[in-house]
């Protein structure tokens, strides 16, 4: 048996929290590409947040989920992870071939990942304070969704960009869930709502849903 | 003369504000790739911000700079723009060939573009309020730079990832400038400081600097 035969392809490990929208994005991408993976749950709540413990800080210096151990390396930042999967696992492409369409996918991903999510994530809301956090989150989600809806009015087909599921859809669905958590009025965003409905029963999206996660509290799980 | 001869390749137009770190990222990338471009200045200050006027909202639904008109389309979101340039103008590559190194570049870009910049940009600071804004900005920049420094300790050569300039460097230098604006103590970040020093006299970075922009107020311009 040669040394190379010894090497067993290790299963990727996703550090994930059931309700984290950034973890959820990556779970959808892994599921769509049918990449088997193990989950290591990191509770963002327990004991002030397991993401801040020394052991996890070595995994992810931003002290956030997700992180993905894959191909002998640890990757952080959900969009970076998804693009790595796209480049190394080309099955079931999540990016269009056309450069301008690729740019349109990235625009929607970026508006959500830079323009909305960072302003309503847990650590920022803790800093904003209990009293103001709902109004704060609503403000930034509404502002961002106005832009997303406008971008979608030019790019959407059945999904965010054309008729194939892309990384933009992996970002959109978890952000809609967060919008509902913060009771954002979604009626001004008919295209967002239509795409969300289109995807809610897709098997890859269903399996990635917070309520289907091993660390989802039993009282919340469906 | 045929119809196609009539078509003149139009010069790209960058909607930019001299001090906007996201505009600056794109200016660096355009300069490194030696792509000539025109600047349309959008003042984020004048009259409550020209980015909020109806005309500009049609250009950029997030009401932010930069936007780039290129190849007959308008692109928004700095990282999306830079990746489009990289995919369509392969001269002077700003991404490594190796997929894992590409992921490392994207990680640094994302920590800055999602984890730092959105929390200290002008519109958020207005919302946070005059009294608290300095401490708020310092808090998030310091937190993000701790992560960037850790990532760089594994990835950096002469620049952020290895010895070639990448998109990560295009994001880092403007963020260091913002850190200084908010009087962040940068002494805990020796690798960030070294790379910033390495790049400050690079012609493409110098030409992209706020003080070299046509809309920089004369009292600030060098």
TrEMBL record, chains A, B:
It catalyses: RX + glutathione = an S-substituted glutathione + a halide anion + H(+); 4-maleylacetoacetate = 4-fumarylacetoacetate. GO terms for cellular component: cytoplasm. One of its GO terms (biological process) is glutathione metabolic process. One of its GO terms (molecular function) is glutathione transferase activity. PROSITE patterns: GST_CTER, GST_NTER. SUPFAM superfamilies: GST C-terminal domain-like (SSF47616), Thioredoxin-like (SSF52833). Keywords: Cytoplasm, Isomerase, Phenylalanine catabolism, Transferase, Tyrosine catabolism. Gene3D superfamilies: 1.20.1050.10, Glutaredoxin. Pathway: Amino-acid degradation; L-phenylalanine degradation; acetoacetate and fumarate from L-phenylalanine: step 5/6. CDD domains: GST_C_Zeta, GST_N_Zeta. Residues 98-218 form the GST C-terminal domain. Its cofactor is glutathione. It is found in: Cytoplasm. Residues 10-93 form the GST N-terminal domain. Belongs to the GST superfamily. Zeta family. This is Maleylacetoacetate isomerase. It comes from Loxostege sticticalis.
């Amino acid at each position: 048996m040669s040394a190379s035969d010894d090497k067993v392809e290790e299963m990727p490990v996703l550090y994930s929290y059931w309700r984290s929208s950034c973890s959820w994005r990556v779970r959808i991408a892994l599921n769509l590409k049918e990449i088997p993976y193990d989950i290591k749950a990191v509770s963002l709540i327990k004991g002030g947040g397991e993401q801040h413990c020394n052991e996890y800080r070595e995994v992810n210096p931003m002290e956030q989920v997700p992180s993905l151990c894959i191909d002998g390396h640890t990757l952080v930042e959900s969009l970076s992870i998804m693009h790595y999967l796209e480049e190394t696992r080309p099955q079931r492409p999540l990016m269009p071939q056309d450069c301008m369409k690729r740019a349109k996918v990235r625009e929607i991903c970026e508006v959500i990942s830079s323009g909305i999510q960072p302003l309503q994530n847990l650590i920022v809301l803790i800093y904003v304070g209990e009293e103001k956090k709902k109004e704060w989150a609503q403000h930034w989600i509404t502002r961002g969704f106005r832009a997303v809806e406008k971008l979608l009015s030019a790019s959407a087909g059945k999904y965010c960009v054309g008729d194939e599921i892309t990384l933009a859809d992996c970002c959109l669905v978890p952000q809609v869930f967060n919008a509902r958590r913060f009771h954002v009025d979604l009626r001004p965003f008919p295209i967002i709502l239509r795409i969300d409905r289109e995807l809610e029963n897709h098997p890859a999206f269903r399996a990635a849903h917070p309520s289907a996660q091993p660390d989802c509290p039993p009282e919340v799980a469906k």
